[in-house]
Specification:
The protein is mainly α. The chain contains six helices and two strands, in the order E-E-H-H-H-H-H-H. It has a two-stranded antiparallel sheet. A hairpin with a 2-residue loop joins strand 1 and strand 2. 3% of the residues are buried.
Length: 121
């Protein structure tokens, strides 16, 4: 006989979700707490939101709390790991750079009078 430990998140007397580890269950429960708090904020706002929209929006914002905190300037954006820059010579030889240099190297010739007349006719 096998024994399994499961962690069940129960909200308002209803089983919300089952997890195999405590950490994931706690994180989910915390996210649902934040969503409830956000729903309360939406309920106090002068903007009319249906219950389903309020619930969806509050859950979305709680799930993306890091981005929300950055947007509210409450947290600095996560800096990405520094990457090594490619050597300048290698970067200059990409097809786009070569095409740019070719275009920039040839100055545009002014149109001659005969070319203008041909275009107008």
């Amino acid at each position: 006989m096998a024994v399994e430990s499961r962690f069940v998140v129960i909200r308002h007397g209803v089983e919300a979700k089952t997890f195999m580890d405590k950490k994931s269950a706690d994180e989910y429960d915390k996210m649902l707490d934040m969503a409830d708090n956000l729903a309360d904020v939406f309920a106090q706002s002068p903007i009319e939101l249906s219950d389903s929209v309020s619930e969806e929006l509050s859950i979305y914002l709680a799930q993306h709390r890091e981005e929300v905190l950055v947007a509210l300037l409450a947290k600095k954006p996560a800096s990405k790991a520094p990457t090594k820059k490619a050597p300048k010579k290698a970067a200059d030889k990409t097809p786009e750079k070569v095409a740019e240099k070719t275009v920039e190297a040839k100055p545009a010739k002014p149109a001659t009078k005969s070319a203008k007349l041909t275009k107008e006719n």
